[in-house]
Structure formats: structure tokens, C-alpha cells
Amino acid sequence: MVNFEVKFSGVPALQCSLNDTKLTQRYIELIKHQTESPIFRDPPQYTLEYFKELAVKAQQMLGWEWSKDSYPLEVTTRLHKDIEKYLAQGFENVPEEHDHLLHELHYCLHAIESGSRRNSWLQVEWFNDDGFSIDADEYPAKINLEFGDLRLQNPYVGHHPLFVYQQNDNFNIQQTCKFHDFVKPGINIVVARKNKPFDMATYLQWFETYAPNFVAQHGIEKLKKFTGHPVVGFVTNKSDLELLVQQPTIEFEYISFPN
Question: What does pTM read for this prediction?
């Protein structure tokens, strides 16, 4: 069953099918009730050169020393901490003059981690406070992503436990690691083609080693239940998604729902 279509320029609309759960029923209603136009950012437009321009603005406006000779993963994960700390109280407390810069910095930081290529995900999102809470038993965890999977939008600037582990981001895990316990209106389309090997025992030991206080606070069972990517469905016409990621540029057009 196709629950909605996402249309980008140059290719047929992507047919999106959701898993049949109470969570996805609430999720589709959340998207249907959005009245503003969503935002889409195309990764190839978020280049290293653009990031360097943003880094200058970050120094001027925020006092962040983000201008570096190079940006390997160990550097970008540390820079991410500045955004996490700044937004600890939420975007609603951000001065208007900083809002756009922070969004651009955050997205571009992750884009350059993927070489500014469409090899991770595409996301259509709304910047508002709409959404609903979920608990650990409702979390739709999936360890191994597949091309065309539909994920929930990350509701926080931090990251879910598996993402933190896969980036080996062991600095201030208490600040960075966020359980995905809130569903926002946003459509995340996976275009990654590779998965990293995963062993639950090794994963749990990593958290015990680098974040014992985090584990003590939340418990192993909660950590295990929130381990995985929040996958809620898939794109049925993957061949059209293949064509989309090969386009020179991508522009979002619309989302539609079948009658």
C-alpha cells in the first residue's frame, strides 16, 4: 500500500509505503496536517568550500573556531559538540539572527562527512514543534539499513546510540547520545548502500567503557531497545530513486496522498 508520494524534479514521484503500526498511523497524520512548505537540502550543494565560508561566519557571530586545515571525522564530531551545547535548551531559544546559520552549519557539517555526495540520505522536513512522544517499546529499530528505507527524522541535534557508536564518538556521550523518543514531521529517505558490521556484545561493551554513567542512568535494556535506525517503511519504486540520486541537481516539488 502506498501511503504518500514524494515528488522531486526530473523523475517520477517516489511511492512511499509505511509499515502497518500504530506509530506509523500517527506519523502519517502528523505529515498530513502540515500546512507550511517543507525544506529540502541537496547534499552536493553543501560543499567543503561553502562550509569554510560558514566557519568564518561561525567565528564572527558565535565565537567558534571552526576554521581548520582539514575536516576528518574526528574533527567534525568534535565541532558538532558546539552545536549540541548551544542548542541544549532547544531551537526556540535561539536568536533569530543565528537560526539560519545554525541550520546551515549543522547540515553542511554532516554533508562534508559524506563528501557532499548523495550517499547517505535525503530529507524533507518542517521546522516546527509538531510531533509526539514514543517510548522504547514503540521505537522501530532496524540495525541494517537498505537503499530506499524510510526513516523518522532525527528530533535532536545529538544522535541515537547506534549512530554515536558507529562514529566512535566517545567524547561527552552524555551530551551527544539522545534516545529517539519523539517523532517529528519529516521524511528521511535512505540512499546509503553499505552497512557497518555490528555485534551487540561489542556495542554494549563500548558504551560500558566510554559511558558508564549513561548506562547506569538509563539501563542496558533501554539502550538495547533504542538501538537501531528508526525505519518506518520503504520506497517501492527504487529504480526511480536510483535515477534521482544520479541527477545533477535535485529540487523538491511536492508531497501527495492517495485518496
Answer: 0.90
